[in-house]
Model the fold of this input.
Amino acid sequence: MPARTASTRSSAPRVAPSIDVVILAPRERKLVVLLARGPAKSRERWQLPWRSLKPDETIDGEAVKLARKTLGTAPALVEQVAAFGDGRRHPSGAALSVAFLALIDADTSAGFKGDASWFAVNDLPPLPPRQRGMLEGVLTSLRARLDQGPIAFHLLPPTFTLTQLQEIYELLLGRRLHKASFRRSLHAAWLVEPTEEWRSEGRGRPAQLFRYAPKKRRGGRRGVRFGG
Amino acid sequence: MPARTASTRSSAPRVAPSIDVVILAPRERKLVVLLARGPAKSRERWQLPWRSLKPDETIDGEAVKLARKTLGTAPALVEQVAAFGDGRRHPSGAALSVAFLALIDADTSAGFKGDASWFAVNDLPPLPPRQRGMLEGVLTSLRARLDQGPIAFHLLPPTFTLTQLQEIYELLLGRRLHKASFRRSLHAAWLVEPTEEWRSEGRGRPAQLFRYAPKKRRGGRRGVRFGG
DNA sequence: ATGATTTAGTAGCGTGCTGCGACTAATTCA
DNA sequence: TGAATTAGTCGCAGCACGCTACTAAATCAT
Done:
């Protein structure tokens, strides 16, 4: 049921596929996404950063370049999520768009200066319809694969406290986790190792800093399973 | 920044994205994939079924049509897996290809008459390089999502014995499972219900037939976790 | 016919993982 | 100096998992 859209008359012109990137960072207990300004005349003033794919270009390479150009710095992770070729409208007019996920940590994102702006994913401005679907698809996929790979670590700086790590998981899962169970799972997964440093964050006992250091110990590496 | 329409000159010409479908069925304890004949002059004589995407077409719709046309009947499941736009060669010359997974059960696949042929996924003829990658990507994704959704059921007829179901899981996972544990997990997941029928399959005690009937019981539906 | 063989399905035990409440430890604030 | 706050650990109770061993119902061989 292809819904005819946008600037088309009898038969749509052939337009190159687009690459769209969903750049995420944690920010004040919320997940935020980086949106770029659209053309002034367009209905939606904000858009996911995108570009058209030229022949001979690889999608992964171009996605990394696009993320770096938009962000001014290289993200910790860039990963393809899915292709979107429903009939919905895309700013490029492309019949097909490929969605990418990009993650950076809070510290790096705080240093961002550029034309784009951060928005909480729970409180977004109107987006072009296909991009709205792409964003939702990326978030769903992110949550589903949380326990498959070390995704959460890419939202943190190189060293972090276990409470910080737990807060990232809670942010992505949308629910509270039990501290003791979380740490036990983490320990069993052999994903982090302690550093010598401790950080005093205002009140309370200082926390030890850890770094991401997966050990391929005997038995398949298990993801972090959640207590809570 | 988005380039114009049809074809460029000096570098590669612009070619519409392709839709490629990996049609799988269980067959004599092996997983088989349906391959179509390529053009006689081409290096690889066999290819994944594919077609070029025209503007205004939706990828999911076209994937279903392609699968149905190739197969002569509608598959039990058609699902997008990923986009492939590495530099590797594709028969269409497209810069970008989208891979789809399609599943049908053994009985239906046995009735297949057509130009294409079934090959065991462990013993394949040479394929165009990008399609080789797409096939591997689809298989990897299939195995990874086995415990997330009811994928296995789409490789079986509407009613089946629990031994048949277990064999499908063993086929996809590539290892033997323990009967009692498998059934316990299945029961806990509330995914099947017994019918009144029993099937006598040669020797031994007859087996009860079950049907796929997921119950959204209290607590999130767990996938089948594997014993043994 | 009857016992061997084959396949289906269940019972129950030990171990380990999970969820949770309650505890100790180290710091800041009044 | 003691209340409050945050970090980190202990250990129990219950459930899930892996496995062996059992019962059930059919066919095959003699």
